[in-house]
Amino acid sequence: MDGRDAGAGTPDGTPAASVEAVFREERGRLLAALVRRFGDLDLAEEVTSEAVEAALERWPVDGVPPKPGAWLMTTARRKAVDRLRRDQAFAARLAVLQVEADRAGPVPAAEPGGDLPDERLRLFFTCAHPALAAEDRAALTLRYLGGLTTPEVARAFLVPTATMAKRITRAKKKIREARIPFRVPGADELPDRLPGVLQAVYSIFTEGYAASSGPLLQRLDLAEEAVRLARILHRLLPREREAAGLLGLMLLVHARRDARTGPAGEPVLLEEQDRGRWDRPMIEEGLVLVPAALTGGPPGPYGVQAAIAALHDEAADVASTDWPQIVALYDVLLAIAPSPVVALNRAAAVAMRDGPQAGLDLLDELAGEPLLRGHHPYPAARADLLHRLGRDAEAASAYREALDLAGTDPDRALLRRRLDMIERPGS
């Protein structure tokens, strides 16, 4: 954490904006360092908030310090020690904290220049520990590494604030009672533990890329937060190919964000997008990560998906897309991470390579998959292929089924337009 994180670079240059910049961007780093030192997530969260409050009082008077993060850490650490000293069970609690600290290893010294050591990787693995419910891992990651408030996390998951507060409290209680260690797994554990961390970040991105419900197709704030978290993970785990693959996948997909919706927020499908609006620097950054994700060992699912996204982004249009290679990559993905959704996407690619009947045959083979029955892209894909085959009565029925399942207003609007094109040609 250094002086570039706050101060002159903030939007309005005020001390309050400086505090917000430090707190929002580096809160996870500060919180992780405090958890490492004191072994208590609740304590770390409380004194972090108190340190920010102190900064809001002091910085307008004294000015923003050269290293605001170090100032916050010093203030928070003092407040934590004061709080522990006031605790009636001070001696017992310190003894427990010392045992936990010994298990975690020595606290790293500050980085050159007085900056905080980066302990966020430990916090990633704590928030995504397999002992926690899957639905809680992404919420904790947003809360403690993304720096979102509980109401903001609740909005991200479209649940009431009180519901999310209970979920976060339940998860923290689980961490405490199960004595989940605040540490990076050893080399022998990492292959089993890392996918859970990556999945927590990816689930945040997928909700931002394609909202499950609500008035918007995309929730760019969530998608961008997930990209930021993936950058942190890749920086902390530079040799992990799937961390590179996840970041590459997100960048290559998020690069299309401006072209994915029309003026009224309506969805614009890939074949209709203005590729001139795609973010070329982001695509170039993502393309660099794909070879790193696919070399040095068997491919992982995020690396393969990044390679698929790269083929789409490199093509001038849908017609010139390398569909045979995309189908081949989906074959690899089905072998290493089989799922009905992957099979659905592969069928769509086969339809582009071999024609709509070939794709429809594959979709019909998936008709019994429970996961796809409640997934509106499945009947929508069938409707599109049926329409291309001239079977419009069946296509209209499939579009109506998709309409019943679609969760967002823009998706429903697109499906209604397509249904109208069939039922009222020329409308």
UniProtKB/TrEMBL annotation:
Cross-referenced Pfam families: DUF6596 (PF20239), Sigma70_r2 (PF04542), Sigma70_r4_2 (PF08281)
Location of the RNA polymerase sigma-70 region domain: 23-88
Ranges for domain RNA polymerase sigma factor 70 region 4 type: 127-175
This protein's UniProt keywords: Sigma factor, Transcription, Transcription regulation
Signal sequence bounds: none
Keyword check for Mitochondrion: no
Keyword Transcription regulation appears in the UniProt entry: yes
InterPro entries: DUF6596 (IPR046531), RNA_pol_sigma70_r2 (IPR007627), RNA_pol_sigma70_r4_t2 (IPR013249), RNA_pol_sigma_r2 (IPR013325), RNA_pol_sigma_r3/r4-like (IPR013324), WH-like_DNA-bd_sf (IPR036388)
Family, similarity comment: Belongs to the sigma-70 factor family. ECF subfamily.
Protein name per UniProt: RNA polymerase sigma factor
Source species of the chain: Actinomadura rugatobispora
